[in-house]
Amino acid sequence: MDSGSSSVRLDPYTFKTRCIIASCKRALRGLRLVWAFAALAAACQLAVAQPAPAAPSAPPARFFVVLDAAHGGSDAGGHLGGNQLEKSFTLALSVRLRSLLGARGIQVVTTRDADVAVEPNRRAEIANHAQAQACLSLHATESGLGVHLFTSSLAPATTVRFAAWKTAQAGWVTRSLALAGVMNSALEHAGMRVTLGRTSLPAIDSMTCPVVAVEIAPEMGPDKKAAVGLDDPDYQARVATALAAALVEWRAEARQP
Amino acid sequence: MIPRHQKFLFGILLLASVGMGVLLWQLRERAHQRMIAGQDSAPTSAPEVAQAEEATLMVANDSDGSLRTQSFSLPLPADPGSRARAVLAKLMDLYAAPDSTHPVPGGGGSVLQVFLLPAPVSGGSASASGQSAATPASEQSQPPTGPQLAVVNLAGNFAANHPSGIATETLTVLSICGTLHANLPRVTQVRFLVDGKERDTLAGHADLTRTYLTNDDVPQEGVHP
User: Fold this and answer.
1) What is the C-alpha separation between A67 and A213, in angstroms, rounded?
2) Which of A71, A88, A89, A141 to mutate against chain B (most B CBs within 10 Å)?
3) What ipTM was assigned to the predicted interfaces of this complex?
């Protein structure tokens, strides 16, 4: 009887104990989950609080180039020789350059692939979203001779996480000048006259990548006057090839430790 | 036999014809005299309202993308605003000349006005945000020796006919800024209007919404010089 009565008394106790132990286990599991979430949140916060990386000094894992064919749509740009419009010239050069860069294993993002108007801010958005290692803004003119390379006239500044939109390029000006130097060498190596300058263009001033505005003018002849017009296919091909060579060189420099 | 009244009518018409011929001759002579008199009274040299002074122009050259200093002797008015306009008019005349190194049509009439205002203290950063060039009332009491902001109002035709291109537009803007600073050293900032209104670019490239700094000081970080 005793044993029977004792077994009757013990059963509910055992059941209660088991319930408590199970509850404790669940609570511990929940706590672990909470701690895990807290740890994850802390890690994320630490990552966010890290200072923005300085202008890319480490070799990037991937190499993207943004080609920005200026003008387009209702914005025809300048009128070039042979009834050609600047918007058509820049688009054709962008297509040709993309093909050359693709053949050299360089991935390209373009701001426009057709005759459409793209706002300067939208161009900068595309370039910034691509996180490219080089951006080229392509232009053409009948004034002057050779190829004009322009970088932003903003004074160099340290890179910050939240840069002002209109002066975002300030943190990248040093790299942009370096890119212009590489392009200058490649174009001069191809026998072209190059003019370097600084200017203020709304699109490039908002880009957070090394950016150079490339303006193609008629080629200079031996008499220091325009000898070859912009409509010359051979001249266009030589300019595109030289620009592609410059970007290959830039990629090699970017990958050096 | 000719009737008498017809002879009378013929005579009257003949007399009227002769009279009109004489009158016409006299009118012609009078017009000729007036023309000669007008030629005599025309000035043979431009009236000089002020003494000729040395003016320094920063002249752009498209072939090498440079700005070169050239000096000219010009009659310059005493009023700084008119003086600035006169110097820029000479610069634009050079660009409109047939043998120009930086061909831009328009000539001296391309600069409608130049307004000189006390320069805002934080001109560079304000310009980057595209704010208006209006001067706060508190800054009107600045001493007359302080830095100045020049607001150059260009003609719409000048902007419409300006050659399109980064290089040529930038050279035009920088040569205007450099010329203003060379002749009016107090001008340290320049803004542009076209027909009295703000305009995004000169001819599709050079930014006209910002303030250009003309002094040689090192600009602050992230600011256009």
Assistant:
1) 10
2) A141
3) 0.71
